[in-house]
Amino acid sequence: MTASPPAAGPPTKGNPTSQAPVLEVRNLSKQFAIRNSRKLVHACDDVSLTLYRGQTLGLIGESGSGKTTVGRCVLRLIDPTSGSISLDSQDITKAGKKELQRLRRHMQIVFQEPAESFNPVLTVGSQIELSLKVFSGLSQAARRRRVNDLLDRVGVPSVAAGLLPGALPAGVLQKCSIARALASEPRLLVLDEPTSALAPEAEADVLGLLSKLQQDDGLAYLFISHDLSLVRSFCDFVAVMYLGQIVELGQKADVYTSPRHPYTQALLAAVLHPDPRQRLTRQGRGAELTGEIPSPIDLPTGCYLASRCKYVTGRCTAERQELIQIDASTVVRCWRAGDLPATEKRPE
Amino acid sequence: MLFEVSDLCVEYRSLDEISRAVNGVSLWVASGEVVGIVGESGCGKSTLALALLGLTRRNARITAGSVRLAGTDLTSQTDKQLRQFRGRRIGLITQNARSSLNPTVRIGKQIATVYATHTGASRADAKKAAIAALRLVGINDPERRYEAYPHELSGGMAQRAVIAMATVCRPDVVVADEATSRLDVTIQAQILDDLQHAVQEVGSSLVLITQDLGVIANYADRLYVMNAGEIVETAPTARLFEAPGHPASVSLLESQLEESGAEFRLRGLPVDGRNLPEGCWLQARCPFADDKAGCRTVHPELSRAGEEHQVRCHRTSVVIGRAAELTR
Lengths: 348, 328
Prior knowledge:
heterodimer; A: 348 residues; eight-stranded mixed beta sheet; B: 328 residues; alpha/beta; Rossmann fold; 34% helix
């Protein structure tokens, strides 16, 4: 059985349904070879997702679940092993070097650690300008003006342009890297843990900026994060990854209030709420997973969660799990998704 | 009272400056109790944690106060004497597990060494104790894991090994400084469960130092809130979440509740310990500060705000009233 291509649901933010998606990923897989070995690391496996203008899709999962690999394949920073990637309905899976340089204008990335994504010995302004030099035909004077405009858009005073990255606090520097990403006027931004290196106040600041930019320009965001509450507050759709596969994808409200996949249930049940009235014991946490995560080198034949799942049956260990369409906007990679008991509701 | 800290002060010194990181902290932990210490980054939590074990950095000095463990003042002990306490009577778990482990020695051996050093046990007995400690923190197949090197363990496993090392001698107190904050959520809850289980089994008290109120709400019996190196509020856990009385507590709570704004957030950066202002140290950052209440002129004392509940603020009643909007 082939997985029916799951859509990231109907567009919600004022997009006519007929509009083509900004990003469409189909059955994307990436395996890395291990040196001096014939074995492969299965970093991402059969990932499909769709992202429309003005929408944010959160890609959540624990460390090693393949989130970053998906982000990098989407931008063609690494080449996928199989599957296809389309940007504005154009298949870019096989695009050559020249073509990619032209395409990257439309898709940019913001990394986790701002201090490491800038060259420490060049001024911030010159590094933003470099992007303009590559992607625009502007004169030097015009580029300088544009750098100031870009900094202004992200709320950073223009003096920052003349400073070295080390002179700026992490939150401000992250805004500069957003400015750099915006220089080519992209339609898609991949945000790879953009706030996890920042203090809570700076985090709130950067998220506020990203929301505003999206409202103004209709940017599509692929938001990679391990932080469940952050994704809940920031995204429209959520895709949950486990061992390189998407195990559940749906509208944020559905996934968070009625998670269907046992892994999603366990992930949400593990969150410690800052409220002693919701204190749960080890037993009360219920959906708890047992055991350890299998190695991405020797993956099980059946469901990847089978060895840790409390709902496991013979069929789970025997058959590879495919995505099942639950409703218009939700897909779940579990054949039992329909008949699993609902998760224990926490008091609101 | 098993573990009691009185008026502890710690300063960092450079050539021409003194920064006051811990300022007159008093707290106590009863036998078998789980106590939380929370505060924003830069509030002095970690300096306090190290001072509790007499592990202050070279440029830091304990300038006043005492740390008493079952009657003995640790601050007056020599380094050699302190070694009898560290690991044996008081265990420390830090944020980055891997840096607490020797990368060239098998983890079981490291734990056994701690046990043998403190108890004088034979090699075989130390190995048995280490395996039991690994089992207690939820490591499957501890006999096999005993032989593993730190790099062969996942982050969660390495953190468990460090917990095993901290609990193997059945210490009176275990201090956990952000012990789970770098781990994934599913691992975090499991490890905290295992830590709680381990300290209960060996009969230790637990001090949880963190900025994560989710951890506190789920595991601590009682907590202290720190800001600018001071205890600014203390209460039983349920009481503090119901009726937080200090702006620093409210700010922390608001920043961690879903779908809350930034109405009560402290502004700007942590207070500079080199240059503490007159009056309340938080006045410049505090949305509740008021000239008439004396915030700019009088440094507030800890005062009673309820059963076992003390707050260091001139405007406690106003804060409790307003914070009710948040905690309802």
